[in-house]
Each structure stands twice: as structure tokens, then as C-alpha cells.
Specification:
It is elongated and about 145 Å long. It contains 12 helices and 17 strands.
Length: 532
């Protein structure tokens, strides 16, 4: 029996096994090389490992890595071995040749055009990314080194692909890390508290303001359940919001009384919204916590700033008007009125006197507000007759109008009250003058005094344009004026009623108002009325 076929088969199997073993060894080597390159995210580390691996395959004398610069639209050397980087710039072939080699994706020899007497085997190993061209490795090795072969080409092509992936990953990692830090800086710079939780209730994000507002001792709570971090009262509130927003799906806002520190209770505004991924699947919930006291204070300051701007405008107008009138009448007296025409002079001087009084009243209001703001507003109490004050004010204001009828209803047996006569006179001048100004069509102005056991009520009623319901709560605010077409031409700075309120409060009393549009207003003063 012939054994030749069996021997032939045995040699074939041995060669096949040897070939497979070599391929397995090669794959193992390539896998090990790949791990070395792609395991890092640091640029210098990737380059160093890549050049070390290439050195094991091609014993180059010098090499340089060129990467494509999008801004300069050319290849720029970023690292070298065996020679300074600047020595390689003259050896780079034309960009078209480099682009062709990169598109081919193969390790390719190129002519050594250097002027040095010793010639090298010069080659380019392309570095390609998945999204764009990255660059290439320019190598110089001994001319008689038989390194350019199919096996080395396979290994180097694989190594270069892995290096390209690693460089892309490094760039993506850098961008991701930068984005993460950028977003974290934004989150930390927001004045409100921000907390994000996943669907199981574990905290995935929290900023420093949240730890301060919520009274959390440590910011190291990522990964912990909010139920273990928040107070029981706040946890119940978050439970309710979480269930509601998951059931209903839209943004929810609420307010919550919170005491992060026992001595500092605050009102929290809580805004909750669903976090979604790119497929609109739910990831969790984000909560924004707002200290409503700070928000309300900012709103109050903005309103105050707006009122002060309006006040400056009003005061400028109020000052300009009497000053313009005084100036024009004085100029008329000096330049136009006959020195012997005493009647015209007296008439003009009367106008000047009235406008001077108006100007003086405005300055006094400003001084009073200044004293009130600084806490230097004082009253001097003494027994005074309220009927005398009211009669005196009415007598002085009768010249202001001929279209109004002023009616008084004051008990004849009214005892003196303990008050500051000048300040109470200022109160009635303001209230009665307002009743006249805001009743442009005329009508009755009624002043009624009602005595009670320990209080005295004084009512000032008019039949004027009235005050809208939404404006009533604000009429005693400094600088506030009801702004309607009916009040536009009526002079005033919005200081009179705040001063009146402060005077009445300083006497231990209160002032309130009832009003209806186009029906008139009624101001009600209540003052202590006991034994002097």
C-alpha cells in the first residue's frame, strides 16, 4: 500500500496549521499593539506609544508626525524623533501627493529630495480618521534596510488606523471634557439651586447654590437618593411633584415653606421639568429652587427704581412749572409793566406769590420724605382743636376752586385731641386739596367727624374721578401716582399721601380709603380719642 498520499496530506495540514498559527500570532501582536495605542486619551501619550510601536516594526533613524491644520489648510509638524521638527519641513512633498497617499491608505515610499550626502529610505504612513483626514508619519530609515514588505505594510496600516482612531477619540474626549466643564461652570454660576434626579430618585447633578438654599451640609451627594439627603418635609414635596410631573408630563411650578436652618425660614419657588434623551425617553427630573424672598426683593427694588425715575421726572416737571411762571411774571414786571401801574404789578406779584407757595410746598414734601427715610421725622404732641384746623384749611383752600361745595359735619361737643397741630394741618391740606384736584367737574366735598369710645373717625369724601381697585393698595407708596388719562394733567409727585400716612401712623392712628371709578373717593382717618 502506497503512503505517498498520506504524506502529502500530512505536509499540507502542517503547512496550513503553521500558516494559521502565524496569522493567529500576527493577530495577537496587532491586538496587543492596538491596546497600547488606543488605551490612552492624552495626546502626547498616544503619539509616544504610536512611535514606539512603529519603531518595533521599522527601525527608523528619524521620523515626524504631521497633522492637518484646518485653519491653515495645510499639514503641520507636531512631533518628531531623531531630528528637530524644523528639519522636516523642507522634506514634506506636495500636498496633492500627501492627499493621494492618505486616500490610498497605504504605507508608501517617497523620493528623498534632501540635500544631505547620506540618502535614506523615506516613506509616508497615512493617518486616517473615521470623519476626516488627520495627517501622516514621515519616516527616514537606512537605505539598505529591507523593511518595505507586505507583512510590515499590513502591520503598519493597522497600527496607523488605530492611531487615527485614538487621536480622534482624544479630540472627542477633550471636547467632551471641555463641554462638561463649561456646562458645570454654567450650572454653578446660576443663582438658583439646581438638582437633577434619575427615575429611581438618585441625585445625578447638584450645584453649590442648591446645597446652600436647601441646607445640605455636603455637596458630595451624587448617586445618593434625594430621600436620604433632603428633609422629610421637602422629600414629601418632591415626591408629590415627581409623581405629578411624570403623570402629566409638563413643567410644574409651586411654592414651599422651607426651613434649611431653624432660625431662617424661607419661601422656596420650585420648578420641575422632565429630562429627556434624544429619543424623547425619560431620563429623570430636574428641579430649580428659587429663594422667593430674594426674587421679591429684586422685584421690589426694580419697582422702586422705576418709581424713582418717574418721581425724578415728575419733580422736574413740578419744579419747572412754578419756576417758569415766576420767571416770566418777574420779567414782565421788570420789562413790560409800567412802573406806575400798581394794579397790574399787584396782580402779577400775586401769581408769583402763589407759585412760590407751590414751590415751597414741593420742597417741604421732599424734606419730609427725606426726614421719614432717615428716621428724623418728629412730632410734638399738644391739645389741639380739630374743628379749628379743618376750618383754617378750608378757609385757605376756598380760593382754589369755585366749582366745589365743601360741607362739614363736626360734633359741637368735640374735645381737643393730642396731636401735632402743624402736622395735622398738613394732613387736611393734602386730603382736601386732593379732593378738589381729583374732582375736576366740581361737586360736594364732605368732611365728617365721628366720635367713638376711644377713637375718632374723620372722613373726607369727594365726588371725583375715583381710584381703580387695583391701584388702591399702592396709593400710599412713595413716588406712586395713579397713571390714567384723567390724572395726566393733574400736578403732583406722589409724595403727599405717603407723608399723610406716616403722620397719622406717628399719632397712633390709621388711614384707609374706599373708592369707585367715576363715583368718588372716601379717605378715613382713625385717631386715638381719649383723655388728654
Amino acid at each position: 500500500m502506497s503512503t505517498e498520499p498520506i504524506t502529502t496530506d500530512t505536509h499540507f495540514l502542517r503547512d496550513t496549521i503553521n500558516g494559521l498559527t502565524e496569522q493567529i500570532d500576527l493577530l495577537t501582536i496587532l491586538q496587543d499593539l492596538s491596546k497600547k495605542i488606543v488605551s490612552g486619551f492624552d495626546f502626547d501619550q498616544i503619539i509616544t506609544r504610536f512611535l514606539d510601536v512603529v519603531k518595533e516594526v521599522v527601525n527608523y533613524n528619524a521620523c515626524a508626525i504631521f497633522l492637518y491644520d484646518d485653519d491653515l489648510q495645510t499639514y503641520r509638524v507636531v512631533s518628531s524623533r531623531g531630528a528637530p521638527m524644523e528639519t522636516f519641513t523642507a522634506d514634506v512633498p506636495d500636498n496633492k501627493i500627501v492627499d493621494w497617499i492618505i486616500n490610498e491608505g497605504r504605507w508608501t515610499p517617497i523620493p528623498d529630495d534632501s540635500n544631505t550626502p547620506e540618502k535614506h529610505f523615506q516613506s509616508i504612513l497615512p493617518l486616517r480618521g473615521t470623519m476626516k483626514k488627520l495627517g501622516f508619519l514621515l519616516m527616514k530609515s537606512d537605505k539598505d534596510d529591507n523593511c518595505y514588505n507586505k507583512a510590515n505594510m499590513t502591520i503598519l496600516s493597522f497600527i496607523a488606523d488605530q492611531a487615527g482612531i485614538a487621536l480622534e477619540n482624544q479630540n472627542l474626549y477633550f471636547q467632551l471634557n471641555y463641554s462638561r466643564k463649561y456646562i458645570n461652570n454654567i450650572v454653578e454660576s446660576i443663582n438658583n439651586g439646581i438638582v437633577a434626579i434619575d427615575l429611581s430618585g438618585d441625585i445625578t447633578l447638584i450645584n453649590k447654590n442648591a446645597t446652600a438654599i436647601l441646607g445640605i451640609e455636603s455637596g458630595d451627594v451624587i448617586g445618593k437618593s434625594y430621600r436620604d439627603v433632603f428633609t422629610d418635609k421637602l422629600t414629601k414635596q418632591i415626591n408629590l411633584l415627581s409623581k405629578k410631573i411624570i403623570d402629566e408630563g409638563y413643567v410644574i411650578e409651586t411654592r414651599f415653606e422651607h426651613s434649611p436652618y431653624k432660625e431662617f425660614p424661607i419661601t422656596l419657588g420650585i420648578n420641575a421639568s422632565i429630562l429627556l434623551d434624544e429619543n424623547n425617553d425619560r431620563l429623570g427630573i430636574i428641579f430649580v429652587f428659587r429663594d422667593m424672598l430674594a426674587s421679591m426683593e429684586i422685584q421690589r427694588l426694580l419697582q422702586l427704581d422705576e418709581m424713582k425715575s418717574e418721581f425724578v421726572s415728575n419733580v422736574s416737571h413740578e419744579l419747572r412749572t412754578p419756576l417758569s411762571i415766576i420767571k416770566s411774571y418777574v420779567e414782565a414786571i421788570l420789562d413790560q409793566v409800567d412802573p406806575d401801574d400798581y394794579e397790574t404789578q399787584r396782580e402779577f406779584l400775586s401769581v408769583v406769590n402763589e407759585e412760590t407757595d407751590r414751590l415751597s410746598g414741593l420742597v417741604n414734601d421732599l424734606l419730609d420724605i427725606s426726614r421719614i427715610e432717615s428716621g428724623r421725622f418728629e412730632i410734638s404732641l399738644a391739645p389741639v382743636s380739630l374743628p379749628e384746623i379743618i376750618d383754617s384749611v378750608i378757609g385757605n383752600l376756598k380760593g382754589e376752586t369755585e366749582d366745589h361745595k365743601i360741607i362739614t359735619k363736626i360734633p359741637s361737643e368735640l374735645r381737643p385731641i393730642s396731636a401735632d397741630k402743624d402736622k395735622m394741618t398738613q394732613v387736611f391740606i393734602n386730603l382736601i386739596n386732593n379732593a378738589i384736584k381729583f374732582s375736576p367737574e366740581g361737586g360736594e366735598i364732605e368732611i365728617e367727624v365721628i366720635t367713638m369710645e376711644k377713637m375718632l373717625l374723620c372722613l373726607v369724601k369727594d365726588q371725583g374721578i375715583g381710584i381703580s381697585e387695583e391701584c388702591i393698595p399702592r396709593i400710599f407708596e412713595k413716588f406712586y401716582r395713579v397713571d390714567t388719562s384723567d390724572t395726566y394733567e393733574i400736578p403732583g409727585t406722589g409724595l403727599g399721601l405717603p407723608i399723610v400716612k406716616h403722620i397719622i401712623n406717628s399719632h397712633g392712628g390709621e388711614i384707609t380709603v374706599k373708592s369707585k371709578l367715576n363715583k368718588g373717593s372716601e379717605f378715613i382717618l382713625s385717631l386715638p380719642y381719649g383723655e388728654n
